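Title: Comparing notes on inverse folding

I've been comparing how different people in this forum approach sequence design from structure. To keep things fair, I'm posting one structure and asking everyone to reply with a full sequence. Here's the target:
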């Protein structure tokens, strides 16, 4: 088992990964940087693929990434081991016409993305990050320096009803302030263009989101907690990436897929409802057995997908919101997620398979089911299982304050999840 110092070192690496990934496009760029540094080469979907055994490649589709290591045997004969995660998190997306002016201020028009705890975004130092599309079809990543945006709370003196609880109207209240109108400063898109080094008229489209500027930090009495934005689900994207890089090559092809748009239902060409993973699997299976038109189906029938998405740790003061016999704790290891109504794809066979992999790696395993009288969230697991017909298990690392602007996890869980996913890749 890793030493405490190595546990914290991997926690620091997670913090660095989160800080480098203020948007899905940045997360994909950071994963690609690490993969290419380890010998993976990028493929284009427009190219003809001829992957040889042992070859290591990655493919990017907008805010999603698939990386794979080709096994020693054809996919149809040996199958695959896949780990899936997602790159997006609840945030606010900048609108096409974003220059809002009222009450002597310049504001930025945004709309909520996903189901965030929006009150946690108030009174924080915010910026804008993401991808801009340039005239002629080029793209560029951007993150504005400093903290140019803020969502100020209303003072309690001006609304005594706030003592009874806060209600936020997304259209009226969640509009970040950019500047005072009298300063005649450049607007948001002018600043974005300047940061990219182009004229504002050269930007023909954008996928820009708000991002908290406070760096991820060590927290907790012993410094073993990770306090950071976007842990759901950069935490599992990071673990899956490290596991793929650590896994030994074998007969089976190893695949990491990190999809965008999970927080809004995955319905896009880059999301889990789209064809991205299916396209990659089909091309790999066909390339390794060109004479067999049934190769993709045979490959999927021999494969296993681990859907890795952060899990709910038991809350210290509202523990009654958890099922009494299933209360995962921070630092207690990976969480196996189960739901009778298939909000998670785990069944007896796939859950047992993952439990065996954890036992082989010496990793403790926790289990989560939601209370029978409460609804349950979901993941890319059921969506991918439904689209591909692949055996799937849903797991995650325990987290507090999921969907907050700033979440909490344990650095002790990072090596445990990495070891578990590495064992899955190598099985």
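Reply #1:
Here's my take.
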């Amino acid at each position: 088992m890793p030493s405490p110092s190595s546990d914290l070192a991997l926690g620091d690496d997670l913090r660095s990964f989160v800080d480098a990934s203020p948007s899905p496009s940045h997360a994909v760029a950071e994963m690609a940087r690490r993969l290419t540094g380890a010998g993976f080469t990028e493929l284009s979907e427009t190219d003809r693929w001829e992957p040889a055994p042992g070859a290591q490649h990655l493919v990017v589709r907008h805010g999603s990434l698939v990386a794979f290591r080709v096994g020693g045997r054809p996919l149809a004969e040996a199958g695959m081991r896949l780990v899936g995660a997602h790159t997006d998190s609840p945030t606010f997306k900048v609108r096409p016409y974003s220059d809002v002016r009222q009450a002597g201020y310049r504001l930025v028009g945004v709309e909520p993305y996903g189901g965030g705890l929006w009150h946690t975004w108030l009174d924080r130092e915010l910026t804008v990050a993401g991808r801009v599309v340039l005239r002629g079809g080029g793209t560029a990543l951007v993150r504005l320096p400093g903290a140019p945006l803020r969502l100020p709370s209303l003072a309690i003196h001006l609304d005594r009803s706030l003592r009874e609880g806060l209600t936020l109207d997304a259209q009226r209240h969640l509009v970040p302030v950019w500047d005072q109108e009298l300063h005649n400063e450049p607007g948001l898109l002018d600043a974005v263009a300047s940061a990219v080094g182009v004229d504002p008229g050269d930007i023909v489209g954008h996928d820009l989101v708000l991002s908290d500027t406070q760096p991820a930090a060590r927290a907790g009495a012993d410094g073993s907690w990770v306090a950071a934005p976007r842990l759901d689900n950069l935490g599992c994207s990071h673990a899956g990436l490290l596991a793929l890089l650590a896994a030994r090559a074998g007969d089976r092809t190893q695949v990491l897929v990190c999809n965008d748009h999970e927080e809004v239902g995955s319905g896009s060409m880059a999301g889990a409802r789209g064809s991205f993973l299916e396209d990659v699997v089909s091309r790999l299976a066909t390339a390794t057995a060109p004479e067999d038109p049934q190769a993709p189906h045979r490959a999927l029938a021999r494969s296993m997908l681990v859907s890795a998405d952060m899990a709910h740790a038991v809350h210290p003061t509202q523990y009654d919101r958890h099922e009494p016999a299933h209360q995962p704790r921070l630092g207690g290891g990976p969480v196996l997620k189960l739901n009778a109504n298939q909000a998670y794809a785990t069944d007896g066979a796939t859950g047992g398979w993952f439990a065996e992999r954890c036992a082989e790696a010496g990793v403790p395993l926790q289990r989560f089911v939601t209370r029978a009288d409460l609804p349950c969230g979901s993941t890319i697991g059921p969506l991918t299982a439904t689209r591909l017909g692949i055996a799937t298990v849903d797991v995650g690392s325990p987290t507090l304050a999921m969907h907050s602007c700033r979440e909490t996890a344990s650095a002790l869980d990072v090596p445990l999840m990495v070891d578990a996913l590495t064992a899955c890749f190598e099985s």
